[in-house]
Amino acid sequence: MGASELSLYEAVGGLPFFDALVDRFYDGVEQDEVLRPLYPEDLEPSRRHLALFLAQYWGGPTEYSDLRGHPRLRMRHAPFVVGDLERDRWLVHMRAAISELDPPSDIGKALEEYFAYAADAMRNASP
After folding, report:
1. Contacts for 16 with CB less than 8 Å, ≥ 6 apart
2. pLDDT digits (tens, 9 = 90+) for 64-76
3. How far is residue 100's CA from residue 25's CA, in Å, rounded to a whole number?
4. Of 45, 50, 64, 125, which is least packed with CB atoms within 10 Å of its CB?
5. Is 22 inside a domain boundary?
């Protein structure tokens, strides 16, 4: 993107978009028998962390890093068994959240590509 182009964060209207995306995602996770056991009972901190991380990743303020330090995604996910099934279930809910928000196609594509890459990178268990 050139200097005059908006970041994805700006293009989607900032943090409210990521809050809505994460809320829709976690609505799915709450009902998912594969994923729900991987999360703490109280999902609110996880919701907030993910929204802040995504906002920062896509060009927003550095609040996530200010609060939690470097993302270290692999390290933060290491205590949990994440195989193909968990990755695939995670993507089902994230893709559904993107679909519900129906962003412009270029933004939806960028989000889906990133999430596919990131979800695959979190795998730490063989099938």
Report:
1. none
2. 988 887 766 655 6
3. 10
4. 45
5. yes
